[in-house]
């Protein structure tokens, strides 16, 4: 089930592990967690000479430890890494390290290194084929099987210097922002056992960021020499980290894990937050409401507590009752696009006079901030359909499909929209643009349509079928 505010969306993310391939991942959208990570990352981007708006920050729903830069200036961080980190400083250390990979231009050099690394693998495969042709099947298979290892070893030769550079830059960035760089050392120390594990058993992060004793020793020395070495995290940072971690555990882990991590005897805010979310997930609505109401007594102006209350009510079928909490959330966090989308969905479901029009306005505001938000476009299609604006609804559906890369569905609905929209209008021109961009006869789209013809495709709700 896709939740209204904490949203899990399917996507294809390029892997930076040594397989050099793309793998199916899922992207998490959550206003509170994104705000926390942005607040921690943006000062690092400043000292690295990068613009906030140029660097994307994505949260991947994956329990393994990993963080990487892919698709240009985009930092991806796994939920597993956030949960496993002991302090906010450890997460900041990883974010600072990945920031250097962008600022230092490592994306280009790594692509070149990957090309160079592949050459011994191709030679090994070629020798293996020749050996098999000569009747040495076992030797040939061994040579082919070792090809990936040869590529990995050669790749690490090219990237080891970059990893050391990123470590040093992370220390510099954090020092210049007045923060302790100890977190990156702590993170490496916590997982230094990865150094002795086989490549297959290592966490993904340590496959692409191989640890070595001299590397840890060097970054520890740099951190200890930093004038901000002993600066502790602020109370706000500790609160943000604990709430972010509790939220992730509440949504993503089992009820048993939540009970072990946050027993009923723990009355802290993070514990009540996790239990409220876990109860909602288990459809125990009364417990969920009791926990979230207790948090609102303590922090009546917390927009994310109001957002969660609205979500609990909506998920339990009380769409009319969910509107007021979401209005309160927007009162304290005006214009937040993800909350606007949830608010619009609740309004559309309530259906009182004026609700559909207000929902449309909220969705259009959200789409100004996030023009590629597929879920917002899908909700706008529903709202427009409720107003009898069929052609515009079909255009919104085309936009939603295009945003998730479903070119076939985008083309189909853009075609329907073009047939019904008034010519020479903004909407008509946009539908015609989508029609042209997603044309099956366009050579740029050939790979997509070939894949669709061979296997399952992604639908708008994030499921493959």
Notes on the structure:
With 465 residues, this protein is α+β, with helices and mostly antiparallel strands. The protein has a domain at 1-236: Metalloproteases ("zincins"), catalytic domain (Zincin-like, 2-Layer Sandwich), CATH 3.30.2010.10. Helix content is 65%, strand content 6%. It is built from 22 helices and five strands. It has a five-stranded mixed β-sheet. A hairpin with a 4-residue loop joins strand 4 (67-69) and strand 5. Helix 6 (147-176) runs parallel beside helix 9 (213-225).
Output the keywords:
alpha+beta, Zincin-like, five-stranded mixed sheet, 5 strands, 65% helix, globular, disordered C terminus
Blueprint of the fold:
Blueprint: E1 7-14, E2 22-29, H1 31-47, E3 56-60, E4 67-69, E5 74-78, H2 79-84, H3 88-103, H4 106-133, H5 137-145, H6 147-176, H7 182-190, H8 204-208, H9 213-225, H10 235-252, H11 255-261, H12 269-281, H13 285-298, H14 303-315, H15 319-332, H16 337-350, H17 355-369, H18 374-386, H19 390-403, H20 407-420, H21 426-437, H22 446-454
Parallel strand pairs: 3-5
Antiparallel strand pairs: 1-2, 2-3, 4-5
Helix pairs in contact: 1-3, 3-6, 3-7, 4-5, 4-6, 6-9, 7-9, 10-12, 11-12, 12-13, 13-14, 14-15, 14-16, 15-16, 16-17, 16-18, 17-18, 18-19, 19-20, 19-21, 20-21
Summarize the structure.
With 465 residues, the protein is an alpha+beta fold.
| Rg calculated over all Cα atoms | 25 Å
Order of helices and strands: EEHEEEHHHHHHHHHHHHHHHHHHHHH
Q: Architecture of the domain at 1-236 in CATH?
A: 2-Layer Sandwich
User: What proportion of the residues is helical, as a percent range?
Assistant: 55-70%
Main beta-sheet annotation: 5 strands, mixed
